Amino acid sequence: MPGGVTMTSACSIRVRGVVQGVGFRPFVYRLALANALAGWVLNGEQGVEIHLEGSDDRVKDFIRDLKASPPKAAQIAEIEIHQTEPQGLVDFIIRESVRLDRPTVRISPDLPVCEECLAELFDEKDHRYLYPYINCTNCGPRYSVILGLPYDRPNTTMKDWPLDRYCGTEYHDPSNRRFHAQPVACASCGPGYYLREGSDTVARGKGAIAAAVRMLNAGRILAVKGLGGYHLACNAFNATAVLAMRERKYRKEKPFAIMVRNVEGARSLVELSSETEALLTSTARPIVLAPAKVDIPGIAPDNNELGVMLPYTPVQHLLFAAGAPDVLVMTSANRSSEPIAYEDDDAFERMSGIADAFVVGERPIARRVDDSVARAGIFGPVILRRARGYAPGSVAALPTSRPILAIGADLKNTVTLVVNGQAFVSQHIGDLEHYEANRAFEEVIQDLVSMYDVRWEDLVIAHDAHPQYLSTAHALKLSSNARVAVQHHRAHVASVLAEHGEWNKQVLGVAFDGTGYGDDGTIWGGEIFVGSVDAGFKRLAHLRTAALPGGDAAARHPVQAAAGFLFQLDTLPDLHAEPFDFGNRYTVARQLVEKNVRCFATTSMGRLFDTAAALLCFTREVTFEGQAAMWLEQLARTSTTCEGYPFPLVGSELDFRPLLTAVIADILAGIAPQFIARSFQRGIAEGLSQALAQLSSAHRIDTVVLSGGVFQNELLLEDLKSLLANEHLEIWTNHAVPPNDGGISLGQAAIAALTAPQ
Ligand SMILES: [Zn+2]
Ligand SMILES: [Zn+2]
Q1: Which position among 67, 165, 166, 570 has the lowest Cβ density within 10 Å, counted as fewest Cβ atoms?
Q2: Interior CA angle at 403 toward 397 and 405, to 5°?
Q3: Which ligand is nearest to the CA of 166?
Q4: 127-181, pLDDT tens digit by residue?
Q5: How far is the CA of 164 from the centre of ligand 2 (A)?
């Protein structure tokens, strides 16, 4: 333009997504200054709001850079831009947050301490040298400190620690990494850590860390406050300490997670593929399951995998730097399967007989968030427990404008809240039969609904179709005008399709799991459906029905489940004799089946796996859900050959009789157990593949969805991947939510979104 005069334009921009608490406003501020633009930015409840005035070209540059290089932890979902009238502004400012109507901003999950903060933590000349609550806009707590929206310091658990001059200067300096970092603090103005033994504070700060390290090295058990709750920690290589931990926690055999100093440490313990390493070092910092290279006594009995994680809080780094053992057991502070302790007084009370001392941080935790558990699977990353680092992120966009609350299943419970079509999945809550977990379930529901300011009367409540589930009973108590009951296994299949955003695609949906209430009132768990989320899923085929004597107790006793399945075989050897040794529980269960007393009909694949495990000598009671099936998979993995026992689709039934007959025949022939376990697994995979090939051509379908707890079995997935590729079938599995019942709430929400009136 002649004379260098440029047009002044103005626009308003709204950015939605994970844009609060991730350094977004300082980023916008710096970008505006760099482009000589006037205006303002603020955190609104609809996202980040920006007003810009300046030359046309500079505004365009600003928008280009905004899209191209947002802060690392931000996830932009949508950018709306409108032209407006210039107001003649001369500078650019960060304005106070405003509260409008319903918040639609997304709450950031908690973040691990960043490299820059770590460097400062160990720099003697730094103001925050060894300060355990160091953080910045790129790292630190988020979901676990937020008391309400918008995300500002008065709405966090840091509200009681006013900033001193040093922190205040950084907080208000747009060029600083801590500009508007809400949890920012230092040793002189912020909370600290102390060591508590009995009811005494025995050391503070650096002294507390040093004393804690001495105790860990001496084989003691410590409770250490983390981001979303307390951990119990001990030296993983001290077998006496590990055994004491198991006894005090009442945790007989379930594997313990371990924390290692760094990636090299992890590499020395487990097979670290590039995918596993990426998951281990991802910002969620989950516990990652990977094949073990070493056997650490007592950590993961009968299991070839170890669950490993890296330190993610400054305190964890301080402990390692001060000389803590290289490999620590880091398990949730709870007894048996109660929820993790996160409030100090509750932790002191519940852990008093378990922990020898407490490493206590003064910053309160707003809500409990466990460590997440993940694995680099054959189809990509799989989340087995979704909590810290992932929750409460949005996992899917559902085609609905009505708010929906889906309250999940009774085991491995999670809840999903849908607001403006975004499905926010809660952290793992646990098994609702435990009183504490049930209370946590009610708290999480209240928490999510009030955080997003949803009115109860507007909510559609989605729940499991099981009339006796505790979650169903809770759904009926909630004050809502609309309820949708969703069949368990259809919810599993829908959870995968929700992740893919596919509502009309026709698929074959396979749901293999332990227990779920079927349409006919029997216990389902080996189902093949055809259909779509929108049109519904029709049951095409299923595992042949067997009797389940004694109901729920059969899930804890493999021989009890076996009694029902084996009853259908024409001939059976004496199962009380060697090598089976089934014992009295089997005899009693068998009598129940014969008289048809206290028996339930089931198509549960989980119980079929239990039956095979029982035949291969896993005849004791399981001590955690899925243990016998995991044991069988681990045994199968040690065999290099197999023959794939027959598991044919006959009519609409997958017939387990030839499969179990072959297992028994090979046991009696003295064939190695690992070969039998492997051939059983291979038989399931081949039988399912053949059934799917047949059904897919009959129904002209090219995509198969696999979900349900049985598909945590990685060996089964490996077999299916190659077998179904031969049939030219595409396979979809869960990635954002677990294939186990932790994913049920998302599936319920998806089905409710399509079926509830708008
Ligand atoms: Zn940082
Ligand atoms: Zn300070």
Answers
A1: 570
A2: 95
A3: 2
A4: 999 999 999 988 999 999 999 877 888 899 999 999 999 999 999 887 788 988 8
A5: 5
* Ligand 1 mean position, distance from CA 135 (Å): 4
In this structure, which ligand is nearest to the CA of 178? 1
The least confident of 72-76, 368-372, 443-447, 752-756 is: 72-76
Q: What is the pLDDT of residues 413-429, one digit of tens each?
A: 999 999 989 999 999 99
For 89, the token pair is: 């502004």
Contact predicate 355/223, CB 8 Å: yes
Ligand 1 centre to CA of 214 (Å) is: 28
Q: pLDDT tens digit string along 251-270?
A: 888 999 999 999 999 999 99
Residue 82 in tokens? 């409108």
Whole-angstrom distance, CA of residue 660 vs CA of residue 602: 16
Ligand nearest to the CA of 141: 1
- Peptide bond connecting 467 to the previous residue in cis, omega within 30 degrees of 0: no
Q: How far is the CA of 116 from the centre of ligand 2 (A)?
A: 18
Tokens of 738: 């677990």
The share of the chain scoring above pLDDT 70, in percent, equals 98
- Give the Å distance between the CA of 109 and the centre of ligand 1: 15
Measured from the alpha carbon of residue 184, the closest ligand is: 2
Phi-psi region of 17 (alpha: psi -120 to 50; beta: other; left: phi over 0): left
Q: Phi first, then psi: give them for residue 321, nearest 5 degrees.
A: -65, -30
Q: What number of other Cβ atoms are within 10 A of residue 291's Cβ?
A: 13
Inter-CA distances, 209 with 228, 312, 313, 326, 355, Å: 20, 16, 14, 15, 16
Mean pLDDT of 290-296: 95
Report CA(96)–ligand 2 centroid distance (Å).
22
Q: In angstroms, what is the span from residue 348 Cα to ligand 2's centroid? A: 29
CA of 170 to the centre of ligand 2 (A): 9
